[in-house]
Design a protein that fits this description.
Number of strands of chain A: 9
Helix content of chain A: under 10%
Mean pLDDT of chain B: 92
Structural class of chain A: mainly beta
Order of helices and strands of chain B: EEEEEEEEEEE
Low-confidence stretches of chain A: none
Oligomer: heterodimer
Strand content of chain A: over 45%
Number of strands of chain B: 11
Helix content of chain B: under 10%
Number of helices of chain A: 0
Strand order of the largest sheet of chain A: 1-9-8-3-4
Low-confidence stretches of chain B: none
Largest interface: A-B, 21 and 27 residues
Radius of gyration of chain B: 13 Å
Distance between the termini of chain B: 31 Å
Number of helices of chain B: 0
Radius of gyration of chain A: 13 Å
Chain lengths: ~110, ~110
C-alpha cells in the first residue's frame, strides 16, 4: 500500500473549518483514500473514503486532487469534540489491510 | 455507537493467567479483525477472519489464540502473556475482506499485564 504523509499536529478554532492535508504521491490506480479519526480512549472511527471524485457525507468532505497525489479532509464547522488524531490511509482495493501511520493530532480550541 | 462492542473495556492480568477478550458486531458483516495498539506505535493488524475462516495471521505469538464461532462474534484467548503485551486491543468488522467498504472499530480492551 502507498505511504501517506501528514503533518503531526494542527490547531483550529471552534466553529471554523478544519482542513487536514495528506500526501500520497505513490498512490496507484486502484487504491482508495480513507480517513479515520481516533479520540482518546476510543477505537478509530471511520469518516469517509474516495477514489477520484470529491466525496461528502454528514461528517466531512474529502477533496482529492486531479492527479490523486494528495487529498484534504474538511470538517466544515469544527467543534471541541472533533479534537482527535486523524489518519489518512491508502488502501488497495481487494486488500483487507489498513495500514495506520502516525496521523495528525487536531486540536480544536474554544 | 459503532455497532462493534468489545468486552471487557479494561483488563488487568498476571503473566500466568488465562483470559479472553470478546467482540460482537451488529452490522451483518462477514469479516472481523483483531488489531493491537501499543503506546506511541501505529495500529498493528493481528488476525483476519472471513466467514469464520482465518485468512491472515501476522506472525502473532501463539500465546494469542483467536476464535471466530460465527460471523458476529470474535474472541481473543490470552495465555501466559508478557509485560510487552500490555496494549489496547481493537476489534473491527467489515462487509467483506475484499472490496472497498470500510472497517468499523470497537472501542477496544485496555489490557495491562502485571
Amino acid at each position: 500500500d502507498a505511504k501517506t504523509t501528514q503533518p503531526p499536529s494542527m490547531d483550529c478554532a471552534e466553529g471554523r473549518a478544519a482542513n487536514l492535508p495528506c500526501n500520497h504521491s505513490t498512490i496507484s490506480g486502484n487504491e482508495y483514500v480513507y480517513w479515520y479519526r481516533q479520540i482518546h480512549s476510543q477505537g478509530p472511527q471511520y469518516i469517509i473514503h474516495g477514489l477520484k471524485n470529491n466525496e461528502t457525507n454528514e461528517m466531512a468532505s474529502l477533496i482529492i486532487t486531479e492527479d490523486r497525489k494528495s487529498s484534504t479532509l474538511i470538517l466544515p464547522h469544527a467543534t471541541l469534540r472533533d479534537t482527535a488524531v486523524y489518519y489518512c490511509i491508502v488502501r488497495q482495493g481487494g486488500s483487507e489491510k489498513l495500514v495506520f501511520g502516525k496521523g495528525t493530532k487536531l486540536t480544536v480550541n474554544p | 455507537e459503532t455497532g462493534v462492542t468489545q468486552t471487557p473495556r479494561h483488563l488487568v492480568m498476571g503473566m500466568t493467567n488465562k483470559k479472553s477478550l470478546k467482540c460482537e458486531q451488529h452490522l451483518g458483516h462477514n469479516a472481523m479483525y483483531w488489531y493491537k495498539q501499543s503506546a506511541k506505535k501505529p495500529l498493528e493488524l493481528m488476525f483476519v477472519y472471513s466467514l469464520e475462516e482465518r485468512v491472515e495471521n501476522n506472525s502473532v505469538p501463539s500465546r494469542f489464540s483467536p476464535e471466530c464461532p460465527n460471523s458476529s462474534h470474535l474472541f481473543l484467548h490470552l495465555h501466559t502473556l508478557q509485560p510487552e503485551d500490555s496494549a489496547l486491543y481493537l476489534c473491527a468488522s467489515s462487509q467483506h475482506t475484499t472490496g472497498y467498504q470500510p472497517q468499523h472499530f470497537g472501542d477496544g480492551t485496555r489490557l495491562s499485564i502485571l
